[in-house]
Amino acid sequence: LGLGLSENAVECDLPVFEDAARWLDIYFSGRDPGFTPRLHLTGSAFRNRVAEIMLEIPYGKTVTYGEIAGRIARERGIERMSCRAVGGAVGKNPISLIIPCHRVIGSDGSLTGYGGGIERKDALLRLEKAIK
Question: Which of 72, 101, 104, 111 is flagged as catalytic?
Answer without folding.
Answer: 101
